[in-house]
Amino acid sequence: MKTFLSLIFILLSSINLYSQRLCELGNYDLITNTIIGIEKVPFTMIKFIDNDKPQSEKIRYVYCYDDFGRLVNIDFKGNGNIYGAEDIETGCYKIENATYKYSDSLFPKNIEVKDTQYEYLIKLEYNNLNKIKSITNTDKKGKVLSSFNFDYDNKNQLKLIDKDYNYYYEWDEKSRIKKITIPDPFYIIREYNFKYINNKLSTITKISRFKESPDKIRTQSTYTYIYKNNKLHKVQYGNSTTTELSYSLYNYNNDDKVIITYYTNKDQYEYHYECYY
């Protein structure tokens, strides 16, 4: 069975476009503990399931990945749930499924995308270290819909993504992600701050600030990571408005998957993810 510890070792040895949700590119995913679109997803499939829904609607969506950890299909099963697609300038528009076809196994120069509304092309350019230096999103006729650039520090670690408003990344001395700063187009700056103990992720503090008053904290949330038998066992979640903690538990009883189940602060089931190796 593949170890789940890869989720919490956030190392960026090379840049590839792993998840093509361009409107979310560079954000942090608290399910896979990866930077969206930058780091490899360590699963072949992720199912989001709500057991409180009727039988036909329990599976809310399914993500499928190829052997390189890249998104190849997303399907919302016609259950009324929706997926935010890649309109960078105006935000995520709503679709029910999407597929992605790569021009090359390791370093694709083109990615063909087809969803329930559009067909378009993502064009990639790489630097001499095979790290992405720019992405351009075009329609079928070649019209540029959006584009942005990547910048790296002196250790060739991701430092900035230029998406009209810059996303910033800081790394510690062991090349682990230390801080992510993400402004929105309007009023808010979001920060993710990471701390480690014994080379394992121990806490993530998520802070929302006002752009005009950056010293003023709008909201603050803390995710505490708890391990058992050297595996991630539990994540506790709390925010600045309450002292009660909700949480998620990790179940490794199946050889082919890990199940992540979310509970309220009253120990009531909310939903779960089935993450297949």
TrEMBL record:
Protein name from the UniProt record: YD repeat-containing protein
Lineage of the species this protein comes from: Bacteria, Pseudomonadati, Bacteroidota, Flavobacteriia, Flavobacteriales
